[in-house]
Design brief:
- The protein has about 425 residues and is of the alpha/beta class.
- The protein has 2 domains: about 1-200, NAD(P)-binding Rossmann-like Domain (Rossmann fold); about 265-430, NAD(P)-binding Rossmann-like Domain (Rossmann fold, 3-Layer(aba) Sandwich), CATH 3.40.50.720.
- The protein is about 45% helix and about 15% strand.
- The chain contains 18 helices and 14 strands.
- The strands form 3 sheets. It has a 6-stranded parallel β-sheet with strand order 3-2-1-4-5-6, sandwiched between helices.
- Helix 1 (about 10-20) packs across helix 3.
- The chain is elongated and about 75 Å long.
- The protein starts with a strand and ends in a 5-residue tail after the last strand.
- About 45% of the residues are buried.
- Bound molecules: uridine-5'-diphosphate-xylopyranose (UDX).
- It is an enzyme of class 1 (oxidoreductase).
- InterPro entries: 6-PGluconate_DH-like_C_sf, NAD(P)-bd_dom_sf, UDP-Glc/GDP-Man, UDP-Glc/GDP-Man_DH_C, UDP-Glc/GDP-Man_DH_C_sf, UDP-Glc/GDP-Man_DH_dimer, UDP-Glc/GDP-Man_DH_N, UDPglc_DH_bac.
- Pathway: Nucleotide-sugar biosynthesis; UDP-alpha-D-glucuronate biosynthesis; UDP-alpha-D-glucuronate from UDP-alpha-D-glucose: step 1/1.
Length: about 425
C-alpha cells in the first residue's frame, strides 16, 4: 500500500519506518528541510536502538522515502498518518496544542486524489479527528476521504520491538471502508495474532489517554508505597513482587523511582484532566497521580540532602544518568531537570554523566553542571553519587573503584539498581527508594 506519514518526529519516524518494513511504500514528510536532508543521507535525528539500521535498510530497498513536499507525497497515498507534535500548550494550562495537527490537515487537503483515509496517530483530545474532518471538508469540498484514529503505545528505547510486537492495535473508525484500509495496513501483525481493537473514533482517542494515565497512576502508587515502606521499615521491592504476582495487578510498572517523566505521561495526564474538566467532570485519581509525581521529585531532593548530612551547600555530587529513562537521549520532563536545579540552588556542585543524553541535557539543565566522560570521572572526589537513570552500564559499575574514588562513600540509588545489603557490605552509606 502507499502510505504517507506527516511528521518525522519520534512517532512518525518509527511508525513510517516500521510500515515500510511491513512491505508498504512509505513517504515521510516534514517541513524542516535540514531534517529531511539528513534523513535522506541516513542520519537519524533521535537516538532509538535499531532505528538507523531499519531506516537504511528500507531506504535501500526503495520502500521508504523522505520529502518536504506534500504535493509529492499526498496524491498517491491510500492512507495519510498525521504524526506531528501535540505539546502542552504554551499557556501552561495543560491543554494540548493542536496547531500542528490542524495546519497539517489544512495543507494536505488540496492534494487529495481518490479515496484516502486520514489517520490521527498523534495523541489528541477527543473530538480532534472530527475537527480534522471538518477542516479537510472545508478546504477541499470534493475530496473523498474518511478520518480515523490510531493511537500509538510504543515506548521510547523499545519502540521498534513495541511496534512490531504490540499487545494490541487500537483503531477508531466511522465505517467499514476506513476500517478495511487500516486492517490491510496492519495485516502483517494480525497474521502474528495481534488483537485489533476496532471501535469508534472518540473511544480510540480516549483509550490512549486512559492507558497513559493508568500507567502514571500505577507508578505514582508504587512511589507512595515506597514512602510508606521507608516510614514503617518495609521493603518495596518485595512488596511489588507480592502484589504484582496477582494477575489482576500485574508486575509491570511497579518500579519506584524519582518520578515519571518523558514526552507522554506528564503531558497526557494534564490533557486528560482538561478533557474531563471541559465537560464538567473530573478525573481526581489522575490529578492525585500528578501531584504525587511532583512530590516524589521534591522527596528525592530531600533524600539527597539528608544523605549529604543535612545540607548540599559546598558539596560535590556525581550524577549518573540524566535522561528520563535509559536507551534514549530524550530529556523531556526528565526528573533530573527538576531535581538538579534544586540542588544547585542550595549550593551543590554537580558532575554528571549520561551515555547518550549530554547534548540534550545541556538544553534543559543549568549551565553550571559539569559533564564528564564516564561514571568514574564523575565520582572522583565527590561527596556522594546519585544514580538517576538506570542505564545498563550503571548496573555493572566497579563498585570498589567507585567507593575509592568518592570522598565519602555515599550512594543514592534512585532506581533501586543495587541491593542494600550488598552495598552496605561494600562499605557504602547507601539508600534506595523504599528499600529496607
Ligand atoms: C510511555 C508509554 O509506556 C507508552 O505506551 C506511550 O505511548 C508513551 O509513553 P515512554 O514515555 O517512552 O512510554 O516510557 P515508559 O517506559 O513508559 O516510562 C515512562 C516514565 O515512567 C519514565 O520516566 C520511567 O522511568 C518511569 N517509570 C516507568 C517508573 O518510574 N517506574 C516504572 O515502573 C515504569
Amino acid at each position: 500500500m502507499n502510505i504517507t506519514m506527516i511528521g518525522t518526529g519520534y512517532v512518525g519516524l518509527v511508525t513510517g519506518t516500521c510500515f515500510a518494513e511491513f512491505g508498504h511504500n512509505v513517504t515521510c514528510v516534514d517541513k524542516i528541510e535540514e531534517k529531511i536532508a539528513s534523513l535522506k543521507n541516513g542520519q537519524i535525528p533521535i537516538y532509538e536502538p535499531g532505528l538507523d539500521t531499519l531506516v537504511a535498510k528500507n531506504v535501500g530497498e526503495g520502500r521508504l522515502h523522505f520529502t518536504t513536499d506534500l504535493a509529492e507525497a499526498v496524491p498517491e497515498a491510500e492512507a495519510i498518518f498525521i504524526a506531528v507534535g501535540t505539546p502542552s500548550s504554551r499557556r501552561g494550562d495543560g491543554y494540548a496544542d493542536l496547531t500542528y495537527i490542524y495546519s497539517a490537515a489544512r495543507e494536505l487537503a488540496a492534494h487529495l486524489q481518490g479515496y484516502t483515509v486520514i489517520v490521527d496517530k498523534s495523541t489528541v483530545p477527543v473530538g480532534t479527528a472530527r475537527q480534522v474532518s471538518r477542516i479537510i471538508g472545508e478546504e477541499n469540498p470534493v475530496a473523498s476521504f474518511d478520518v480515523a484514529s490510531n493511537p500509538e503505545f510504543l515506548r521510547e528505547g523499545a519502540a521498534i520491538n513495541d511496534f512490531m510486537r504490540p499487545d494490541r492495535v487500537v483503531i477508531g473508525v466511522e465505517n467499514r471502508k476506513a476500517e478495511q484500509v487500516l486492517r490491510d495496513i496492519y495485516k502483517p501483525l494480525y497474521l502474528r495474532e495481534t488483537p485489533i481493537v476496532c471501535t469508534d473514533i472518540e473511544t480510540a482517542e480516549l483509550t490512549k489517554y486512559a492507558a497513559n494515565a493508568f500507567l502514571a497512576i500505577k507508578i505514582s502508587f508504587i512511589n507512595e508505597m515506597a514512602t510508606v515502606c521507608e516510614a514503617v521499615g518495609a521493603d518495596v521491592a518485595a512488596l511489588a513482587k507480592g502484589i504484582g504476582m496477582d494477575g489482576r495487578i500485574g508486575n509491570k510498572f511497579l518500579h519506584p523511582g524519582p518520578g515519571y517523566g518523558g514526552s507522554c505521561f506528564p503531558k497526557d495526564t494534564l490533557a486528560l484532566m482538561r478533557i474531563a474538566q471541559e465537560c464538567g467532570e473530573s478525573v481526581r485519581i489522575v490529578e492525585a497521580a500528578v501531584e504525587v509525581n511532583a512530590a516524589q521529585k521534591a522527596r528525592m531532593v530531600k533524600k539527597i540532602r539528608d544523605m549529604l548530612g543535612g545540607s548540599e551547600a559546598g558539596k560535590t555530587l556525581a550524577v549518573l544518568g540524566l535522561t528520563f529513562k535509559p536507551e534514549t537521549d530524550d530529556m523531556r520532563e526528565a526528573p533530573a531537570a527538576t531535581i538538579l536545579p534544586a540542588l544547585l540552588e542550595k549550593g551543590a556542585r554537580i558532575k554528571a554523566h549520561d551515555p547518550k543524553g549530554i547534548e540534550e541535557a545541556k538544553k534543559y539543565l543549568p549551565p553550571e553542571i559539569e559533564y564528564v566522560a564516564n561514571a568514574y570521572e564523575a565520582c572522583e572526589d565527590a561527596d556522594g553519587v546519585v544514580l538517576m537513570t538506570e542505564w545498563n552500564q550503571y548496573r555493572a559499575l566497579d563498585l570498589e573503584r567507585i567507593r575509592e574514588l568518592l570522598r565519602s562513600p555515599v550512594f543514592i540509588d534512585l532506581r533501586n539498581v543495587y541491593e542494600p545489603e550488598q552495598m552496605h557490605s561494600l562499605g557504602f552509606r547507601y539508600t534506595g527508594v523504599g528499600r529496607k
